[in-house]
Amino acid sequence: MSTNEHTFTTERDRFGRLLADREVWRQATTLPAAGELTARWLEGRSEYQPGTFAPGFDEETMEIGGQLAELNRNGLFTKESQPGQRSQGNAQRAYVTGFCSPASAVALLQVSSRTELVTVAHAPGEPSRASIPVTVHEDEVVTVLGTSENPTDPAQLNDWASEANESLALVLSDSWYVEIFDPVWGRNSALLPAVLGGLRDVPAPA
Asked: How many CB atoms lie within 10 A of CB 52?
């Protein structure tokens, strides 16, 4: 190994993310590959995640990291999530969002048809925008769902190409983007097991 190669293995970007882990993302050109790398990050085995400008995740994700890793290994490349929480003046609805295949999107819509959970599914290229409150802090809404995150314009595609690679950016632009949340404020036991169950109902590709 040359001196330059050895240096690169420990070099970090301005956000503290490990560049050696970023290079692995250059080879991730499918949703399953992106999901596996995200699962490793959630398990603490990577210090780079596209679009997350820190080497790791925030403290509240620690309690659901293992469950999120399972979702990523079962067809949902997760983008955002939070556990359900409730305290004086603050409340969160549990939610998870991510990119998936048409079959997985259908399965997650079916989850919402037989449970209290709500699935918002955005077709590829669908410029949908809504405002569904999921986090209230000191009685003020600070987080909402309802907007498609598929990269569709050149700037979004360039962002994903820079953070991961161009092939994955194009895959994401042609994927479904889903947002699943628990309408019950503060509950943290129902969402992720139901989502995983729905994903496991999807037949394996022939």
From this structure: 17
CA distance 112 to 175: 20
Q: Distance between CA atoms of 27 and 190, rounded to whole angstroms?
A: 35
Task: Give me the count of residues in the chain.
Answer: 206
Q: Say how many C-beta atoms besides its own lie within 10 A of residue 65's C-beta.
A: 16
The token duo for 166 is: 């161009």
| Alpha helices by DSSP H, the chain | 3-10, 19-25, 31-42, 65-72, 102-114, 154-163, 166-173, 191-200
Contact between residue 190 and residue 182 where contact means Cβ atoms under 8 Å apart: yes
**Phi, then psi, of 200 in degrees rounded to 5:** -70, -15
Say what percent of the chain tops pLDDT 90. 78
- How much is the pTM? 0.90
Q: How far apart are CA 111 and CA 11, in angstroms?
A: 43
d(Cα 29, Cα 32) in Å, to the nearest integer? 9
Number of helices and strands (H, E) in the chain?
8, 8
Determine the average pLDDT of the residues in 138-145: 86
Contacts of residue 23, Cβ cutoff 8 Å, sequence gap at least 6: none
